Amino acid sequence: MVTRLGTHEETTMQMHDHRRLGRELGLFGTDPLIGAGLPYWLPDGATIRHTLEEYIRTAERRAGYQHVYSPVLGKRELYEISGHWSHYSDDMFPPMDLGGEQVVLRPSLCPHHAIIYRSRSHSYRELPLRMAEVGGMYRSEPSGVLGGLTRVRAIQLNDAHIFCTLEQVAEEAGGALAMIRQAYRDLGIVPAHYRLSLPGPGGKYVAAPELWERATALLTEVLDAAGVEYEAAEGEAAFYGPKIDVQIADPAGRESTLSTVQVDFHQPERFDLHYIGADGGRHRPVMVHRSIIGSVERAVAHLIERHGGAFPAWLAPTQVAVLPVSGDELPQAEDLVRRCAEHGLRAEVAAPEDGSLGARVRAARLVPYQAVIGAREAAAGQVALRLRDGRRLPALPAAEAVTRIRARVDARGTGLWHEDAPEGDPSPASRG
Ligand SMILES: [Zn+2]
User: Which superkingdom does the taxonomy of this entry point to (predicted)?
Assistant: First the structure.
């Protein structure tokens, strides 16, 4: 799509460039000495990332996932078995020679999870077995395309593999799609569209036409059951199977895949995975690969751009800015920060020496809640709350303000106060 952007769009694009905002907000950075495509996270960026990862782990635990850790390296042979070596080596780092062995930075977590599954025997009663990990993987992106958090060489992936029977695939894939939609509501992300990614011409796909057809039929069933509109795209499948991709768009309209659900008959075969069925015999499980928010890097880049740095309250690095009108109210301000911390809220004092009240309000414009304490509020044990969107609330007892902010933060989504309408289902945006 070639469109000449008007001045307004250009300005909006610059405003929402995650690289510029990331630098200004002190979220992440890069250094030539560490290397291109290898960003580091500053404290506020690390807070966002940690909060996001914990959110995902909590959602996964509730949905019956078990978490594992696996190493970011593996022997070359592991990826030869998985098929990555023959289908994906262009994107892999060259192997390292180590005492007569070749070791590779992993291009995906799947082979490790298959090996963990295989490490002990499983009964059909254990299925579906849902194995999750937020783990590192590596991609040898050419230096010319690297930038910010969207094209990186070191990736933290929110990944999971569900080992299940063929009969369980549709429900498990549907459950993963429901988790993705809930996460998008909580994060204020609107998908550009849903895509059914199919193989295309060329040799990068494993050959097994019958299995491709069966997997495609299952994913189509899942999309139809969810009632979402989608488009089929040839040449976008993983080398081992078709997938549902949830596409997002950056402010310039460039699309990328954030979340994905895949059905895979190939790797269970390659790793000779099995479970003991009710009949006492050995059966082959299916692997459903799924990622709710994709890579942490891409998710945070998108959140920065989507919200222009005004993150949903539950994700904001600082959730409450406490502004004493003068130095006289500093003790009450510090007391409120302590009270917030006790309730698990991230609060900071913006002290009078940082500037006039107006200047401090402006400096804290991306903070969801500003608690102003003047002489009157201090005397009454109250705070006057200002919301990031400009609303001002009548003075509240400090304890009540903290409880109500805590409740709104726990409700997630992008609303700032309890009477805000719950966010609707982010069905694909109608882009005009
Ligand atoms: Zn996988």
Answer: Bacteria
Please report the domains of the chain, with CATH numbers, ordered by start residue: 7-307 (3.30.930.10), 320-410 (3.40.50.800)
pLDDT tens digits, residue range 332-363?
999 999 999 999 999 999 999 999 999 999 99
Query: What would the pLDDT profile of 73-126 be if each residue is shown by its tens digit?
Result: 999 999 999 999 988 888 999 999 999 999 999 999 999 999 999 999 999 999
Give the angle 147-150-155 at the CA atoms, nearest 5°.
105
HEC per residue, 92-104: CCCCEEECCEEEE
- What residues flank ion ligand 1 with Cβ within 5 A? 110, 289
CA of 100 to the centre of ligand 1 (A): 28
Distance 352 CA to ligand 1 centre (A): 52
Residue among 361, 368, 372 at smallest CA distance from 395: 372
**Local structure of 19: helix, strand or coil:** helix
The whole-model pTM stands at: 0.91
